[in-house]
Amino acid sequence: MTEAAPVVRRPGSRWKLALRIVVSAALLAFVVSKASNVDDAIPDEHHGLTIVLLVAAILTALVGVFLSAWRWQRVLLLFDVRVRVAALFSHYVVGLLVGNVLPSTIGGDVVRIARASNTVGSSKVSFASVVLERLTGFVALPLLVFAGFAIRPSLAHHAHAWIALVVATTTLVALTLILFVAGHPRLAGRYAERESWARFIGAVHLGVERLRREPRQIVPVLGTSIIFQTSQVVMFGLIFRALDLPVPIAAVIAFAPAVLMLQVLPITFSGLGVREGALVLFLHSFDVSNAQAGAAGLLWWGCMIAVSLLGAPAFAVGNRPPSVNTAKESV
To answer: What is the mean pLDDT of residues 155-176?
Structure first.
């Protein structure tokens, strides 16, 4: 029997969502107010190439979502659960739809957990797989930041470059602490056999413990994560090129991951405002105007929205229980 995963709306979640929307609007208004000429965001030439590059960015986003589903599949193997990538892709785009388009009090990851629970037959395995899938992403992003600075060390002398390094270092330290707690038998491990809500913490512990016992499992999990995050950086690179921004490749590799890490801060709706503000800071020293940087952030969000719309049919149909063999199939 499938273990149910009810979606619980916490008290006060609506006003928190409203507050996030207000913060996003305020930050975007601030970015716009600092833009001396909004027309700067429109390239003067090769509009045909601009459209081609934006379409390429959307296709890259689509590939990135598929890679996310692939990464999720690798994580589920830690729990000896095999699921088709197509099923996980469907859950992922529905989660993106809720997180990027719909002003819902339920986050995209919560929707993914709820929908995947039917697929894998266990809410705690679904929860643990989504948590670990997210955490692997925060391993790859700091590594990409450091790779960008290694390729072009002079980036460290640019204004606000230190913010990217601090964000990457802080993320790695926080991730190390989280994994230590999750993998420690006397901390998260003591919840492994619990039947209350604490069983979800225990499930995360089991996944981390499996990685520790079988280090070879880290290669496909981390490898798919690096490939996925690289696709996100490529998206930024295509958008910068579409807007004809003079940003070197090394700078894209160094700063785009920092933007991706900053935009997950739970203070705005879908990262709006934080993402655009971070781009303004990082790209200013490359003679990129505030309007251009803000437009780049909004175009990135627009590409994700375009891909998210693929989840509309599945969202409308609802979360129907799959066939009995779904969780036993591989790619």
So the answer is: 91
